[in-house]
Amino acid sequence: MVSRVNIASESEFEAVVGYSRAVRIGDIIAVSGTTAAAPGGTAVGGDDIGAQTREALRRIAAALAEAGAALTDVIRTRIFVTDITRWPEIAEAHREVFGEIRPAASMYQVSGFITPTLLVEIEADAVVLEQPRTDSNHA
């Protein structure tokens, strides 16, 4: 039987909204929208959208680690931003963190987040394969 594991973080919103930072069922892990929120309605990195992106990805990596995975297991990211014209800064941070992993990715502009100081929110999906695949493993 496949079990479900809910991963919590220190976000004050998890209990209020009723969600988990990440959920793992079998080999699949879904990480909720993750930001650079800091206490007092501020954001780690302030107005630096690249710094906020790096912090969100750091938090995603921590949630994945707690779920028994790593950034190398990420197959998709969804990036939500309040100012799409700043996409190069976000893209640079995403590329720095993921390097050659190169997950499928999408970026969307939204009107805002729950805390106005937040400029970016990222979701991630990961799959943990029990055995590394090689060309001889493909049918």
Automatic annotation (TrEMBL):
Annotated InterPro entries: RutC-like_sf, YjgF/YER057c/UK114
Source superkingdom: Bacteria
Protein name from the UniProt record: RidA family protein
